[in-house]
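Appendix B, record 7
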Amino acid sequence: MNVSFARKVILVSGGTGGLGQAVSLAFLEEGAKVVVTYRAAEGFAALQNVAGANSASLKGQQVDVTDEAAVVQLVDRIVAEHGRLDAMVNTIGGYAGGVKLWDLDTKVFDQMLALNLRAGYALSRAAIVPMLKQKAGAIVNVAAKAAFDHAAGASAYAASKAAALAMIDSLAADAKGTGVRVNTILPSIIDTAANRKAMPNADFSIWPKPEDIARVILFLCSDAAKVIHGAAIPVYGDS
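Structure tokens (predicted):
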């Protein structure tokens, strides 16, 4: 199975987060040139440190990925420097829950839409432009099981993830026949430090590891997955 990314250029949004770091490191291990977006400089420094010798193929940019103009500028810089963009993986997201709809702060609702929907919109809209010119490329957006499993107390989160799933599904239909493949993955609770801190009494053993999900994402971006387009793939195991 060919999952080599030698000489490939990959954009990973949120590339220093719990899942994003695992995705970034996995691409680097397979020979890719990786550009990540991040919020905190110390997060990028930590990623560089973990990447070790592969950090020579890693670049980072502090970008608000909900800002369409900033995202377009980022993609333009990547293409100007490398001549192409082979894949974009959006791992940006946020969670807010535990509140009934009638008690929900509208600011929280707007935040969920920004992180879980608008970021993917801005990134996909910018990234697909050079891919269409190349007639090749892959986009993978991270939504969530909550896109179709709408639990009580999670109206804003579920709505934003459901909208993200629908948006990417429609983008896949738009991109049919162009050579650009577009897919979604649907995690539930991922075994990250942040989730362990938020749910200290949970059974961590049933949560999928970021590294396992990263391998699914690499496959979807590889030539081995050339027949997978417009899919929404569950990656939550037994959790």
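Remarks on this record: The domain at 9-234 is CATH 3.40.50.720 (Rossmann fold). The longest strand covers residues 180-186.
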